[in-house]
Each structure stands twice: as structure tokens, then as C-alpha cells.
Design goal:
The chain is built from 16 helices and ten strands. The chain is α+β, with helices and mostly antiparallel strands. The mean pLDDT is about 85.
Length: about 425
């Protein structure tokens, strides 16, 4: 059960390794010993005079072995297979469990997030931890700790009221609820509980379209034709130092190129921000998408080069630098403002649980996602079949595809005026 973590070193930590219900567990004991005093035969320290700390370490290991067996017997009786992290927390006294053997809801979230940390993307782990923090904040404000049985429609209604009193957007609330439902489902599959309060019809994931604009082909051409001068940059940044001016201009040029590539190719921001010369050959862009749909699996995205993109690539723009999404979002707004993409746009958003109408200049609403949205909308308006666009862009369902289409009613009416039906 007990082994040295680093048997080749002079000193080593002692770890517990064992199996339960076919699963392998590896738990730190908190003990360490000089390796020359470790006896592999009985998995204990030598009790001789040369190592007076040996008996004390052995006593603590015996106590831990007893605690492990007691914990596993408890899980066996309750039919629970704990994760490595859950068992570790229980042995360290950091995991409080209900009388029924269920961990508290927040403890399960913490345990689950740590368990998938190495398997999932870092962004997924961070989303789970954000949800944990919101649950803990709610518990502090309400003065109680949540159990699985508490996650029902009454919790949902109270949590929603509490959440909107503090935070703004419906999408933020929806992302938290989405994770709460996930944790309830995974804990049910793990055999931890059988509560189903999260399946109530009203216990739903709310959302709204956060990015509601697209750029027409004329607007994209305006962005492409814009000469980014020192004067324009100084107008937006009057206090910019001379030595930063050149760097700022070069950065904006690279952002513009990347954004336009996305706006003519349907590439997601995770793909067009890391595009390099290696991905461009024989008149096509070929890249293995970072985010894959279920239907696409490991297939590459292959998209024909638009003439404007050819010009960008032939201009000698350096595609070797990887740009952050934050930088692209910041610079593309500035570029659109310089290009006078300033048509007033009415946006209805949820703030503090209420729908609020606000007006923005169009450049204020441009983000990295606008590129893919613009590509899909402009391709459809040009006469491409929706099925062809879906195949190029990697959409696995029509429902998800049509969420990207932004067509102004007047523009759509003019497009359909020549349809045989109206002739």
C-alpha cells in the first residue's frame, strides 16, 4: 500500500497506492523519509536507533491505512466509487459529507473540476471553478450549504433572483446554470445521489445573442482599403509615445489581416488567429480546426482563397505571430471606428434581469466572432447553398448554423425581389 515516490533520491515522500472497485488510487501521506531507512518488504521505515523518527512515521502510516480501509468500507456499503480527489479530501478532513454519504454540492464541484483538470481544456476547468465560486458566494449570502437535494426549482428561482441582483447578462447566468445541470447529471451517473430537481421544465439555461451584427462586403472592403496612418492612431491615442506608435501600427495591420481572413473564410477565431503560411497552398487554406464538431471529427477545414485574401497574403504580411483574442477584439474596434463603421445599432440586452434597449455605434459591437458571422451571412446572400456553407464552416446542425446568419430585413427583401415567386 505504501511506496516511495522518488526511490532513487536521498529523501523521498511516501505515497499510498491501492485499488478499489477496479480503480487505482494514489494518495499523498504527508510523510517523507531517507530512502536508506525504507523497508520495501513491509512498506515501513526501519525502527532502529539510527533513525529515531522511524517509529513515529510508521505509527502515522498505520493510522492512515486504518482510515483508508474505514473510508473504503463506508463507500462500499453505500455503493459509491469515489474519485481519487474525493477520497484524498475525505482523508484530509476537507470533505464534509451528509449523513446519507453524499458530499456537499460545492465540494463535489471542486472535486469534479480537479478530476477533469488534466483531461479537459484549461478554459473548461476555469468555467467550472467560476461556477463553484458563484455557488459559494450564494451560500455565504444565504447562510447555508447546498446539498444535492437542494438543487431544485425553488433553488433555481431564488438563485436567479440573487444572481440578477448582482450580475448583468443572461448569458452569464445561463453558463452557470448549464454547469450546475452538468454537475447534477455527472454526480447522478457516479451513483452519488438520485435527486432530479434540476430536470424541472423551468430549470432551464437562459441565453441571448450577444453579438448581433455582421459586416457587409462593402464594409469589409472599407476596412481593407483603410490606410492606418500615424494621425489616425494619434487621434484615438493622443498620449501615445513615439516609440510605441510604430509598434501599434504594425499590430493593427496584423489584426486587420487576421480578421479579414476570418471574414472571408468562415474560420473560427481559434483557427484564424493561429493561421500561418504553412496552412496556405495551391489556392486553398487548409487547417486542422482547434474546435471540432461531432460530425467533423479529425477532418481538416479546406476553404478556397478569396481574391482579397490572396492580396493580403501576397502583401508580405507576417502570419508567424500568434495573436490573442483580447488583442484582436481591442484593435478591430479601433480599426472599424477609423473606417467610420459607425451606423447606429439598437441592441436589446438583459441587465439585472430586465430587458434594456441600448444604442451603439456599429464599431463598438464588432468582435472576433463578427468575422465568422459576416462570412456566413455574406456567402448566403451571394447565392451559396446553406448546406455548402455548413460543410465549409463545420456546422453539424442547421439550428447552430442559422444562429450565425445576420440579414437585415430590407437587404433580404431586395435580394428576394428577383425570385420567380415575385415575378
Amino acid at each position: 500500500m505504501f511506496y516511495l515516490k522518488y526511490p532513487q533520491r536521498e529523501n523521498s515522500a511516501v505515497i499510498a497506492i491501492f485499488r478499489f472497485k477496479g480503480n487505482r488510487y494514489k494518495i499523498p501521506t504527508g510523510e517523507s523519509t531517507p530512502t536508506k531507512f525504507w523497508r520495501k518488504s513491509n512498506q515501513r521505515c526501519s525502527p532502529g536507533r539510527s533513525f529515531p523518527d522511524g517509529p513515529f512515521i510508521n505509527d502515522r502510516l498505520r493510522m492512515m491505512e486504518s482510515d483508508i480501509k474505514q473510508a473504503l468500507n463506508g463507500y462500499k456499503i453505500k455503493g459509491i466509487t469515489p474519485t481519487n480527489e474525493r477520497l484524498r479530501l475525505k482523508l484530509q478532513g476537507e470533505l464534509e459529507e451528509t449523513s446519507e454519504g453524499e458530499p456537499l454540492f460545492a465540494d463535489y464541484i471542486r472535486d469534479y473540476a480537479e478530476t477533469i483538470k488534466e483531461e479537459k481544456a484549461l478554459s473548461t476547468y476555469k468555467k467550472y471553478i467560476t461556477t463553484l465560486h458563484k455557488i459559494e458566494e450564494y451560500e455565504r449570502d444565504r447562510g447555508r450549504q447546498l446539498k444535492f437535494a437542494d438543487i431544485n426549482i425553488f433553488f433555481y428561482r431564488d438563485f436567479k433572483q440573487w444572481f440578477y441582483a448582482k450580475y448583468d447578462t443572461r448569458n452569464y447566468f445561463g453558463s452557470i446554470i448549464k454547469n450546475i445541470k452538468r454537475f447534477m447529471n455527472t454526480s447522478t451517473l457516479d451513483g452519488i445521489h438520485s435527486h432530479s430537481g434540476h430536470k424541472h421544465p423551468e430549470f432551464k439555461i437562459e441565453s441571448e445573442e450577444a453579438d448581433t451584427v455582421y459586416l457587409s462586403l462593402e464594409e469589409l472592403k472599407t476596412i481593407y482599403d483603410l490606410e492606418i496612418t500615424d494621425e489616425l492612431i494619434k487621434k484615438e491615442h493622443p498620449k501615445i509615445y513615439a516609440h510605441n506608435l510604430k509598434r501599434k501600427k504594425e499590430s493593427m495591420e496584423k489584426v486587420r489581416a487576421r480578421f479579414l481572413i476570418g471574414a472571408y473564410t468562415l474560420l473560427r477565431v481559434s483557427d484564424f488567429k493561429r493561421l500561418s503560411e504553412v496552412n496556405v497552398r495551391d489556392g486553398f487554406i487548409k487547417i486542422k480546426p482547434k474546435k471540432r464538431s461531432k460530425g467533423r471529427k479529425n477532418r481538416d477545414v479546406i476553404i478556397p482563397l478569396h481574391p482579397l485574401i490572396k492580396e493580403i497574403l501576397e502583401s508580405g504580411i507576417d502570419l508567424s505571430e500568434s495573436l490573442s483574442e483580447q488583442k484582436i477584439n481591442k484593435h478591430i474596434k479601433e480599426i472599424c471606428k477609423m473606417a467610420k463603421i459607425n451606423k447606429p445599432e439598437e441592441i436589446i440586452r438583459t441587465e439585472k434581469g430586465r430587458e434594456v434597449e441600448k444604442y451603439y455605434e456599429k464599431w463598438e459591437l464588432i468582435t472576433t466572432h463578427t468575422a465568422r458571422r459576416s462570412a456566413a451571412t455574406n456567402m448566403l446572400m451571394s447565392g451559396m447553398e446553406a448546406s455548402d456553407i455548413m460543410l465549409l464552416g463545420g456546422w453539424s446542425s442547421e439550428k447552430s448554423f442559422w444562429k450565425y446568419i445576420r440579414m437585415e430585413p430590407e437587404v433580404n427583401a431586395r435580394r428576394l425581389a428577383d425570385h420567380p415567386f415575385f415575378r
